[in-house]
Amino acid sequence: MTGAVLARRVNGLGRQTFSSLSNRNYRRYYSGQAVSLIGTWMQTVAQSWLVLQLTGSGTALGVSVALQTLPVLVLGPYGGVVADRVDKRRLMVVLQSLMGLLALVLGLLTVTHAVRLWEVYLLAFLLGLNNCFENPARQAFVLEMVGPAELRNAVSLNSVLVNAARAVGPAVAGVIIALGGIGICFLLNALSFVAVVVSLLRLDTSALQPSTPAVRARGQLREGLRYVRRTPTIAVPLLMMALIGCLAYEFQVVLPVVAKQTFGGGAQAYGFMTAAMGTGAVVGGLWVAARGRTGVRALVKSAALFGLVIGGAAVAPSLYWELVALTLVGAASVGVMAKGNSTLQLEAAPTMRGRVMALWAVAFLGSTPIGGPIAGAVSEQYGGRAGLALGAVACLVAAGLAAVFLRSQRSGSAGGLAAGVEPVLEERG
User: Fold this and answer.
1) Nearby residues of 309 by Cβ (< 8 Å), 6 or more positions away
2) How many Å from the N-terminal Cα to the C-terminal Cα in the chain?
3) Is residue 339 exposed (0-12), middle (13-18) or buried (19+ Cβ within 10 Å)?
4) Of 73, 165, 173, 304, which is the most buried if we count CB atoms within 10 A?
5) Count of alpha carbons within 13 angstroms of residue 327, beta-carbon side
6) Region of residue 187 (left: phi > 0; alpha: psi -120 to 50; beta: else)
7) Residue 295: inside a domain
């Protein structure tokens, strides 16, 4: 192979990997998110460490995470109804501004040494209340910026961004906590929201492809639930994520315990463990952006791989090998998230997309009020390794149940669902 041919292939792969960034609106939005997400991950680490510092309890840590996600479980589906009714960009401007204000309040309470556990709990709950409306609007807004052809690429690159921030934010947070204190992390996060709000205000609205707002009517939430129930290509990924999100994606509850109790480390060890996951997820996200597929079958494979590598992290004999294993966990996690998200958005009808993505948020985040305390209690009682093992089992069970469903579809034993065989089995490149 000549150098010129190799260069053309590399350039072609690069264009394919980053194709959605050729969209000017998405590029602006992406840059604002890049700044804000680093601050968000700094706050995630700082808040977990603050609760652990105040209480020394893994269960209390699980409660704080549960309170932040409880509103998503209770009100998340209604947040999707609102997202289908309104201008998503304007809604996001308001809600992102409020998130910055909440971070500012927590930062001021912490740096003045006035913070109490109940205040952390209250602010976590208010942030979760905000998230139940912001999450479905943000998820569905991506399609309005880039269109169907670039959706998988955009979602994958957004996962890369989230996890690049996960690699940078926690490591920076660990240093800041050691040198300047936990409260500085919250204040920097509050400042970071300026970037995302400005990026949303600067979008070229004439280039957006907004879905027609749903007319306000009674029964729209029930209508969305009925739509999901009769659409296997949406119902199966949602059920998978409900189980995986409940017990596997509880890393901010489990990893602090692993860092402190299993390996005898502190905030810096926790930060580097989280950063290792982020580094792996960047690599995994770039692969999915360039070569990934969507569809239930692809999601089943990713969930099974995710379970296996979490199992590896559960038995890692030293901190070094734990970081190696968590790098693989990060790479596998982004495959589950990006493939599940893209599959749902591409399968959902435009007028239902907000409600479907709200249920995705419920499955991923809203399950944490159940899974967070469970993972925290298991980790506190049996150690952080047991908390990781619990997540590994959840992934493998979810993949196994979905695989059984796919086989039943192929054999025609699903009866009335047989008409959905082709969409369920389909994988898109």
Assistant:
1) 325, 328, 329, 331, 332
2) 26
3) buried
4) 173
5) 10
6) alpha
7) yes
Give the CA dihedral 124, 127, 129, 131, nearest 10 degrees. -130
Record the tokens describing residue 82, joined without a space.
């609102």
Q: Is residue 408 part of a domain?
A: yes
d(CA 354, CA 271): 34
User: Each residue's pLDDT tens digit in the chain (429 positions)?
Assistant: 565 544 455 455 456 677 888 889 999 999 998 889 889 888 988 998 898 888 877 778 778 877 887 787 777 777 777 877 888 889 999 999 999 999 999 999 999 999 999 999 999 999 988 988 888 888 788 888 888 777 777 877 777 787 677 667 877 888 888 888 899 999 999 999 999 999 999 999 888 887 766 666 667 778 778 888 888 888 888 889 889 988 888 887 888 888 888 888 877 788 788 788 878 877 877 776 666 566 778 888 889 999 999 999 999 998 889 999 999 998 898 788 878 877 887 777 777 777 787 788 777 766 667 787 888 888 888 888 999 999 999 999 999 998 888 787 776 644 443 444 334 344 444
Say how far apart CA 297 and CA 405 lie, in whole Å.
10
Q: Is residue 184 part of a domain?
A: yes
The one-letter amino acid code at 238 reads L
Q: Does a structural domain hold residue 1?
A: no
The CATH number that applies at residue 187 is 1.20.1250.20
For every residue of 359-375, DSSP letters joined together read: HHHIIIIITHHHHHHHH
What CA–CA distances, in Å, run from 353 to 280, 301, 340, 425?
Answer: 30, 25, 14, 21
Which bin fits 324, alpha (ψ -120 to 50), beta or left (φ > 0)? alpha
Cα–Cα distance, 177 to 354 (Å, whole number): 38
Domain that residue 326 falls in? 16-203+221-425
* pTM exceeds cut of 0.70: no
Spatial CB neighbours of 180, under 8 Å, sequence gap ≥ 6: none
Q: Is 294 helix (H, G, I), strand (E, B) or coil?
A: strand
In the block, which residue shows the tokens 């879905």? 211
Number of structural domains in the chain: 1
Burial class (CB in 10 A: 0-12, 13-18, 19+), 56: exposed
